[in-house]
Specification:
The protein is an all-alpha fold. The chain contains ten helices and no strands. The two termini are 31 Å apart.
């Protein structure tokens, strides 16, 4: 916190009030991104190793249910082969997959906050020039990189649909309703099946700001 206060003091010497507010928001979001990126990368690594991946993904009795959940994702599958096994193990599934699901929720929350901030920056027609606002420009580019990195890593977690769908189904059995954020999570996963295509769409409204920032960095190098 003291390091952030010192950083903000240095920023305040060069930025107007709007830019300073944006810099503070960019700093907070980039700090959050580091933690979410670390946890998302850990999930990818854990799921890629047979010995460390969640045991539920290898449960023979859950195999038919997981296949059905993944096949129809994000449509909620409540009937079909293997679904009774989810009911039997619902408490263990919710407990065992909660941390994974919460990380996916954090990705969604970060994504939504980042998009909101990108929109604010574009609407305010903030100009990025390393010679005039070096720190603000770097914070902006850091957020662009963190956002793209996070969505690409998410798309490369092969078990993401199984983890989210199985948790949501067990949650619905245990609580009488699906996890509230699941529809938005499911849509995010579908949107980023082809992450590069979707990222181009996400950044298109902000291409002017991104181009300015990148050109300034290229000139400086």
């Amino acid at each position: 916190q003291s390091r952030r206060r010192t950083h903000n003091t240095m920023l305040s010497q060069n930025l107007n009030p709007l830019e300073l507010k944006l810099a503070e928001k960019l700093t907070i979001l980039n700090d959050r991104a580091v933690g979410v990126l670390t946890r998302t990368s850990n999930i990818k690594k854990i799921c890629s190793e047979p010995r460390s991946r969640p045991s539920f993904l290898s449960e023979k009795q859950l195999e038919p249910a997981i296949k059905a959940i993944v096949r129809r994702f994000p449509v909620v599958e409540t009937r079909g082969p293997g679904m009774p096994a989810v009911q039997t193990l619902r408490a263990e599934i919710v407990q065992g997959l909660r941390a994974y699901y919460y990380t996916f929720q954090d990705i969604l929350e970060f994504k939504e906050h980042a998009i909101d901030l990108f929109n604010i920056i574009s609407s305010a027609q903030v100009s990025f020039d390393l010679a005039l606002n070096f720190d603000l420009t770097h914070l902006f580019l850091d957020l662009v990189v963190n956002y793209a990195s996070l969505m690409i890593i998410l798309s490369r977690i092969d078990e993401r649909k199984a983890l989210m769908g199985l948790y949501n189904h067990a949650h619905e059995i245990q609580n009488g309703s699906g996890e509230p954020s699941f529809p938005r999570l499911g849509q995010m996963v579908i949107d980023y099946e082809n992450p590069l295509k979707k990222l181009i769409e996400d950044f298109a409204p902000h291409s002017k700001q991104i181009a300015e920032a990148l050109m300034g960095r290229a000139v400086q190098q």
